[in-house]
């Protein structure tokens, strides 16, 4: 399992997409969420979009490997069935998950996972990246920045921290770390 975690806007999704283009037998674990689908997102590809009630029902049934109520009424998590599907195909699972979710997976699979924390250069750069997306209003931007500041405190609990101040270098460093981990298998 390759766990890529970071505050929102730090570049984890871009780095995961880069990794998936490499010849490493990696497959993306599609997370589930209870938020509304954005314009360019596809159900089952970007996320499994569930209603908050459906999400809670699946939590009660034990269908999640990990889950978190990231913001009040806004759930994100990893379905166990998604991990099973990827392993049955003989591939390595790649997670693009929030910081708490990444640590929860690492705790369950300490020997079989590599947990990487993608660190933004600073909060101001993170704010600019989030604003550039065009998906945030001032209130949601402030929520994400506040959460990012909390998440940065968890960075040292990951196997490795990769600072994304220059995307090409961060992608190369991530690739090297993943290759090194997979070669140990």
How would you characterize the overall build of this protein?
- By secondary structure, the protein is of the alpha/beta class.
- Helix content is 43%, strand content 23%.
- It has helices spanning 12-20, 52-60, 80-88, 99-108, 123-133, 138-151, 167-183; strands at 2-5, 26-28, 31-33, 47-49, 64-71, 74-79, 92-97, 114-119, 160-163.
- A hairpin with a 2-residue loop joins strand 5 (64-71) and strand 6 (74-79).
- Helix 5 (123-133) packs antiparallel against helix 6.
- The longest helix has 17 residues, at 167-183.
- The protein is globular, with a radius of gyration of 16 Å.
- The termini are close together.
The largest sheet has its strands arranged as 2-7-1-8-9
User: What number of structural domains do the residues give?
Assistant: 1
- The first-level CATH class is given as Alpha Beta
CATH third-tier fold name: Rossmann fold
On the 0-100 scale, what is the average pLDDT? 92
Number of helical elements = 7
CATH architecture designation: 3-Layer(aba) Sandwich
Order of helices and strands: EHEEEHEEHEHEHHEH
Runs in which pLDDT lies below 50 for 5 or more consecutive residues are none
Q: Pairing-aware structural class of the strands and helices?
A: alpha/beta
The termini sit apart by 11 Å
Residues in β-strands, percent = 15-25%
User: Would you count the extended β strands for me?
Assistant: 9
The helix content is 40-55%
């Amino acid at each position: 399992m390759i766990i890529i975690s970071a505050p929102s806007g730090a570049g984890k999704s871009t780095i995961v997409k880069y990794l998936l283009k490499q010849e490493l037998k990696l497959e993306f674990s599609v997370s589930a969420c209870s938020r509304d689908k954005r314009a360019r997102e596809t159900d089952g590809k970007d996320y499994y979009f569930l209603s908050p009630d459906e999400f809670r029902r699946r939590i009660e049934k034990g269908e999640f490997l990990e889950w978190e109520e990231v913001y009040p009424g806004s759930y994100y998590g990893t379905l166990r069935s998604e991990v099973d599907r990827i392993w049955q195909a003989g591939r390595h699972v790649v997670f693009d998950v929030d910081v708490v979710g990444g640590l929860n997976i690492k705790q369950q699979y300490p020997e079989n996972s590599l947990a990487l924390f993608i660190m933004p250069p600073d909060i101001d750069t993170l704010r600019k990246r989030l604003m550039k997306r065009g998906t945030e209003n001032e209130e949601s931007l402030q929520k994400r920045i506040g959460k990012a500041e909390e998440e940065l405190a968890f960075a040292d609990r990951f196997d490795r921290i990769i600072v994304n101040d220059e995307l090409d270098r961060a992608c190369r460093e991530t690739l090297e770390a993943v290759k090194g981990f997979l070669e140990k298998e």
